[in-house]
Design a protein that fits this description.
single chain, mainly beta, five-stranded antiparallel sheet, four-stranded antiparallel sheet, 33 strands, 0% helix, 38% strand
């Protein structure tokens, strides 16, 4: 059977009861009252790992968040120790977490079931590791409020040493540029807030910018293929086009706390003063669209603490104490038109027969989760 070129004339859009047009759908609102998730990361096999908010421990889910297991074997058991950062290694699948009070790093080689201490930061009693990232060649970075160092590991987290970026202030944020091998960025509070850049995978650092950024921490970085760098601080989101030497505040959105970039699409969580939503730009940050439909009304500073992309192309947004949410449709491996919510439609073929299914805005047939339908050819003659 041959199929004619699809046009809007041949697609009859139908409305299905209960079919959500929201961008986000809930995975859970809270695992329990005291132990909701603080941070997440997703392994190459699709397992979601989350850090417990109330005390030291890890959750994991192998079924897209429908059910969860937990473990704290080998992690500190005192109530003062909490896990503030988590990273699943792309090269090994091992999990690295940062524990505070004092700042320590732990690693699991058995999918989170047991843990061993990898590094401790001595006298940093009040230290906090806020981010763990993986750079070129599997090099690991840890940063946070524990003395102004960016720590670095070249042996999968067995040993950690501070890089040349050191001082009296605390470090905040790590950005790995996926388009420029070896380029790493960090925001620090050394001699006032500044952005630092390394061109050799974290071995050496030079200040990129210090003025015009205001006060606060660099919570996250994001990079696009065209060379743009996006950075959030406590007060404002910024954009740079010259490797971080100058930064321009993104107008109309304040209090943003997280960026995520996927090719030319940039996702940003906006603070409460910006409506407490998630925004997306497909034109290098020149314009932003509110895509927060389906997320809860914010009750704290910002709606989405962090973003994570699953191997099957879904974007996850962790909304603090308000739960974990997933994009209703895939955002990876698609064109902008294909990202629009699919509609039920009737496709008519040249020989007069038709089939009922779901189609994106390009006319491509897609599968929609949790909406059963039977593929059937209907004679139209």
């Amino acid at each position: 059977m041959t199929v004619t070129k699809i046009s809007a004339f041949w697609i009859l859009l139908l409305t299905l009861p209960g079919f959500s047009q929201n961008f986000w759908v809930p995975v859970f609102t809270a695992l329990d009252t005291n132990h909701n998730i603080r941070r997440i990361d997703i392994a190459p096999d699709g397992t979601i790992y989350g850090t417990k908010r109330a005390y030291s421990g890890i959750y994991w889910s192998t079924d897209r968040g429908q059910t969860w297991d937990s473990s704290s074997t080998g992690l500190p058991t005192d109530t003062a120790s909490t896990v503030k950062a988590i990273h699943v290694q792309k090269t090994t699948g091992h999990i690295i977490v940062g524990v505070d009070s004092p700042a320590r790093l732990y690693r699991s080689t058995d999918r989170g079931r047991t843990w061993n201490e990898a590094a401790s930061y001595g006298g940093a009693v009040n230290g906090t590791i806020t981010v763990i990232a993986e750079g070129m060649g599997g090099v690991l970075f840890a940063n946070g409020l524990f003395g102004g160092f960016v720590w670095r590991s070249t042996d999968n987290g067995d040993t950690w040493v501070p890089g040349s970026l050191a001082g009296a202030g605390g470090g905040t944020g790590i950005g790995i540029n996926p388009y420029v091998p070896g380029e790493v960025y960090s925001g620090t509070e050394i001699a006032g807030f500044a952005v630092w850049r390394s061109a050799d995978n974290g071995l050496n650092w030079a200040m990129a910018a210090q003025h015009g950024l205001g006060e606060g921490d660099a919570a996250s970085f994001a990079f696009t293929p065209g060379g743009s760098i996006f950075m959030t601080t406590v007060h404002n989101p910024f954009k740079s086009m010259d490797k971080g030497e100058t930064w321009t505040a993104i107008p109309a959105i304040t209090g943003a706390n997280s960026f995520f970039a996927l090719n030319t699409d940039v996702y940003m969580s906006g603070g409460k003063v910006s409506g407490g939503s998630v925004f997306r730009s497909s034109d290098d940050g020149n314009t932003w669209t509110d895509i927060g439909s389906g997320l809860p009304v914010p009750t704290n500073h910002a709606i989405a603490v962090s973003f994570s992309l699953s191997p099957d192309g879904y974007l996850y947004a962790l909304a603090g104490k308000q739960g974990l949410y997933r994009s209703a449709n895939k955002v990876a491996g698609t064109t902008p038109l294909e990202k629009a919510p699919p509609e039920a439609g009737l496709k008519v073929y040249q020989d007069g027969e038709a089939s009922l299914g779901f189609y994106d805005m390009t006319g491509k047939r897609v599968q929609v989760e949790n909406v059963p339908w039977t593929r059937k050819i209907f004679p139209m003659k």
